[in-house]
């Protein structure tokens, strides 16, 4: 069963339940209103009896002022002759042990009278009594003559059949109207739900396209409800997947290129040894080339490993004396034959990993030497304020091309204009990864002349 059918059925069930509750409440209100009307009628009749009949009884009493049973009966019959009852009620008088019943009343009550099945009530209390002819409302009041003498009681009975019929009529009308409303509403609801869920069907088709390797998109509806949010987020997800796929393609291409080049060079020189056509000097030169290319391969693999490890890489966070970092950097630069690098450091302590800091600074210096003309000045400084320590590597070279400046810290992005450098393009990416692993940040501050890279870490204490 489709979602639109289920939603429609659920909505119709809720509407139907609401309709049933509303019908029952309406029926109950009608029943209570009819009963209140019957009670008002019965009270009015008893008030009328209580005001007129005692005077008739007093008028028929003998010289002693006490009415005999025969006199009570005569007074009751005379009263019922003039007030026999009505279409909504039946009057019953109990006088001196004699029961007198009016001749007029609702058919249901007259049938009960003829069958001698009229219910009896309790004085001063209105009650509903179930009978063979339906529910009957009964109200009884005592008859009191002058002097406070109770000579009998008067009972007014009203049939609730009309209330039942009116309630049934209300239920039938509400049911008919509700059934028509449910039918029409169900059709309208089915169409509306189908229309509202149309973007989800488009979303399912687009998801199939993405699963099959395509770049499916869905039209984004001009609304801010859940469906619109899902469509927007789905398109954003597909965009992210496309970017990730493109980055993977670029990564594979760059890795393939960076690994293929030194392998090809090394292989060509090794072939000289294989054919035995090289003299001793050529052999030494070829061996040197092979060693350098293998070193380059090792650096590329190390950079890839560091970059892939990212935040999961084992990095210490401990007090480090900044001048010790600079001294270690100078030793590494001397070993690589990189001279002419100006260094200075404030005597401050920062939180980080000394080996990783030296590795990062060395990568920045090598990057500056590689991408600037010979003779370009390179400086390494350590600055601080009350909360942070900044390790700065800057040069006065031509600077970074504006086209790659925003992506300089991304992997395999070369900072040399034209992209002609034989470099993996991993230096800045590895530096950022290692710095962030130590809880710091790395940023590029290109000026009007040269390039300035700042590694900022927390100051100890």
Brief overview, please?
With 461 residues, the protein is α+β, with helices and mostly antiparallel strands. It has helices at residues 3-60, 69-82, 107-114, 161-196, 198-211, 226-275, 280-309, 322-336, 354-370, 402-405, 427-437; strands at 90-95, 98-101, 127-131, 134-145, 149-159, 318-321, 341-345, 349-352, 378-384, 388-395, 441-444, 451-458.
Number of domains: 3
CATH topology of the largest domain: Beta-Lactamase
The main β sheet shows up as:
5 strands, antiparallel
For the record, give the distance between the C-alpha atoms at the N and C termini, rounded to a whole number.
66 Å
Strand content: 15-25%
Order of strands in the sheet with the most strands? 2-1-5-4-3
Number of strands: 12
- Going by CATH, the architecture of the largest domain would be 2-Layer Sandwich
Reconstruct the topology from this structure.
Blueprint: H1 3-60, H2 69-82, E1 90-95, E2 98-101, H3 107-114, E3 127-131, E4 134-145, E5 149-159, H4 161-196, H5 198-211, H6 226-275, H7 280-309, E6 318-321, H8 322-336, E7 341-345, E8 349-352, H9 354-370, E9 378-384, E10 388-395, H10 402-405, H11 427-437, E11 441-444, E12 451-458
Parallel strand pairs: 7-9
Antiparallel strand pairs: 1-2, 1-5, 3-4, 4-5, 6-8, 9-10, 10-12, 11-12
Helix pairs in contact: 1-2, 1-4, 5-6, 6-7, 7-11, 8-9, 9-11
Keywords: ATP-binding, Kinase, Membrane, Nucleotide-binding, Phosphoprotein, Transferase, Transmembrane, Transmembrane helix, Two-component regulatory system
Domain HAMP: 194-246
InterPro entries: HAMP_dom (IPR003660), HATPase_C_sf (IPR036890), HATPase_dom (IPR003594), His_kinase_dom (IPR005467), HisK_dim/P_dom (IPR003661), HisK_dim/P_sf (IPR036097), Sig_transdc_His_kin-like_C (IPR004358), TCS_sensor_his_kinase (IPR050428)
């Amino acid at each position: 069963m489709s979602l639109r059918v289920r939603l429609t059925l659920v909505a119709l069930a809720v509407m139907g339940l609401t309709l049933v509750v509303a019908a029952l409440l309406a029926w109950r209100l009608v029943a209570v209103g009819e009963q209140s009307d019957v009670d008002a009628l019965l009270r009015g009749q008893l008030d009328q009896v209580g005001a007129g009949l005692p005077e008739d009884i007093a008028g028929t009493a003998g010289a002693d002022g006490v009415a005999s049973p025969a006199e009570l009966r005569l007074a009751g019959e005379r009263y019922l002759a003039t007030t026999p009852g009505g279409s909504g009620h039946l009057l019953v008088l109990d006088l001196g042990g004699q029961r007198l019943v009016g001749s007029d009343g609702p058919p249901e009550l007259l049938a009960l009278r003829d069958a001698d099945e009229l219910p009896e009530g309790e004085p001063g209390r209105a009650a509903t009594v179930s009978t063979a002819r339906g529910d009957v409302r009964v109200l009884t009041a005592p008859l009191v003559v002058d002097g406070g003498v109770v000579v009998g009681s008067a009972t007014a009975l009203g049939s609730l059949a009309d209330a039942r019929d009116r309630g049934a009529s209300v239920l039938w009308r509400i049911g008919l109207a509700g059934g028509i409303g449910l039918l029409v509403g169900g059709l309208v609801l089915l169409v509306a739900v189908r229309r509202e869920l149309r973007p989800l069907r488009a979303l399912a088709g687009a998801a199939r396209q993405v699963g099959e390797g395509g770049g499916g998109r869905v039209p984004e509806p001009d609304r801010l409800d859940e469906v619109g949010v899902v469509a927007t987020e789905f398109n954003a997800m597909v965009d992210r997947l496309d970017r990730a796929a493109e980055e993977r393609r670029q990564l594979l291409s760059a890795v393939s290129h960076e690994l293929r080049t030194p392998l090809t060079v090394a292989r060509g020189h090794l072939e000289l040894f294989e054919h035995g056509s090289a003299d001793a000097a050529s052999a030494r030169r070829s061996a040197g080339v092979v060693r350098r290319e293998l070193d380059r391969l090792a650096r590329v693999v190390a950079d890839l490993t560091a970059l892939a490890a990212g935040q999961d890489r084992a990095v210490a966070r401990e007090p480090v004396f900044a001048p010790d970092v600079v001294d270690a950097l100078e030793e590494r630069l001397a070993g690589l034959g990189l001279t002419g690098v100006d260094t200075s450091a404030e005597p401050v302590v920062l939180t980080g990993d000394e080996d990783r800091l030296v590795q990062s600074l060395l990568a920045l210096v090598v990057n500056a030497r590689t991408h600037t003309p010979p003779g370009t000045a390179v400086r390494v400084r350590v600055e601080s304020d009350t909360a942070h320590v900044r390790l700065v590597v800057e040069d006065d070279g031509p600077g970074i091309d504006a086209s790659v400046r925003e992506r300089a810290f991304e992997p395999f992005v070369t900072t040399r204009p034209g992209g002609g450098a034989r470099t993996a393009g991993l230096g800045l990416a590895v530096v950022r990864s290692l710095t962030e692993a130590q809880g710091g940040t790395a940023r590029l501050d290109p000026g009007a002349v040269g390039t300035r890279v700042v590694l900022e870490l927390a100051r100890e204490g």
